[in-house]
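Box 3.1 A note on notation
Throughout this textbook, protein chains are presented in two layers. The first layer is the amino acid sequence; the second is a token string describing backbone geometry. Keep the layers aligned when reading.
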Amino acid sequence: MPSLNRLASLVVLVTAGALPLAQAGESVHTAGSHLSAPWSIRDEAMPLPVSLQLSYPLLAQAAVSGAQDMPGSPLSVAPTPRAAQCAASYRLPWGPIRNCTDAIAAGVGSLAMVAGFLGWWSDGFSSQFKFRNEGWFGPETYSAGIDKLGHAFSIYVTTRLLSQAFTWAGDPREMSVARAGMLSFAIGLGIEVFDGLEKSGKYGFSWQDMIMNSAGILLGMYAEDNPGFDKWFAFRWRRESSSLVGSGTYDSHQYFGVLRLSGWSELGPYNPLRYAELMVGYGAFGYRGDSDNSNYANRQRSLYAGVGLNLTELLDRTAFSGSLQGGRTQWFATEFLKYVQVPGTASIHAAKTWKP
């Protein structure tokens, strides 16, 4: 049962990668006002070598590639002839980059590191490792759970796109899915570790983030391992305009779980219900950032329900039924509509709203 094997592998990775951090040193808890403040683990013998910062992309690539030698691993499946063709096209190997799969892993790891340094780690690192209890969906948290859903969503999308990229590079589907899950987990864990070592103290290793990362990875792996998933379901994001919204990081983000009626085989090809989607979602307003409580009185959290238009089904039966069928335009449109809720294509209402 490959799916259970992958789940077990992720559990082992979580335990082996994160447990030593939780056992290192003395914990100190600090109380906060509206926000759940970080608690830290102090260990002055934990400097972050520059070599580790620079080599993290290759370490992520090596960890994924090394699992290929594990007996019984989905990564031990022989690659397709496409793998050799891809490597030859890009004149590989080049140093530790042996093939297109390695190039994708190292490239994505590098992009994650660059994004981290530009967005969060510009102040550098310290020898003090910090954990941060960020909470979940409560009104006193800094994002009301929007950041948590953002973790699950972004790594879900990453896992799915990586799986397709590895298939393009010549991996069989089973290998692509397993490799994408492992690389996504390695990147998510690496980001949290660097957050824990970040010098300014604004961030920290968050167990909540890792739990949501793991949920997004498992959902992405399941979706890629089951081709019929997208006929039935979608996990989407949108950002809505509102008078309550400022310019903050978490304002007006909404995430939706979507049930597509097109997956119901009993519906005939001309039944209009094939173009319908049932949607539930969650969003928050007035949450401007990690330490900005200036709009606290206007904060609100909402659960949504609604009905939407299945644009994928509509386009497949109209614009993409002719010469564009199977082309790049259809692929890009299909992928975009899996993850983004297009404005004006759904009637969505707040079923329940909470305010502080």
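The chain has a mean pLDDT of 79. Strands lie at 26-29, 38-42, 129-132, 233-239, 253-260, 276-285, 300-309, 346-354.
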